[in-house]
Amino acid sequence: MGKLLSLIIGEEEKPVQAIPLEHAALCANCETVFDVTGRACPVCCSEVYLNVGVALGDEETRSRVRDLVVAR
């Protein structure tokens, strides 16, 4: 919920965790979604994951993911 809307309806604002699609990964071991820039799952330390941007994204997102991988 947006900050302005939270102020209007009087609800306490909670921190939001967001991961851009090209950085999102799903761990094959513990099924946690995490930011792939760390290259390993922060929960179980597995390096086996599915890049969500490649699996669900359009061609533009897939291209950004390829660029990120090549840059490493």
Total of helices = 3
The count of strands amounts to 3
**Main sheet makeup:** 3 strands, antiparallel
Mean pLDDT: 80
Q: Can you give the helix content as a percent range? A: 25-40%
* Residue windows where pLDDT falls under 50 for at least 5 positions: none
- From the spread of the alpha carbons, the general shape counts as globular
N-end to C-end Cα span: 35 Å
Structural class: alpha+beta
- Counted up, domains total 1
Radius of gyration: 16 Å
SSE order? HEEEHH
> What order do the strands of the largest sheet run in, or round the barrel if closed?
2-1-3
Query: What percent strand?
Result: 5-15%
Write up this protein.
The chain has one domain. Helix content is 35%, strand content 14%. The protein has three helices and three strands; from the N terminus they run αβββαα. It has a three-stranded antiparallel sheet. β1 and β2 form a beta hairpin. The protein is globular and about 40 Å long. The N and C termini lie far apart (35 Å). The mean pLDDT is 80.
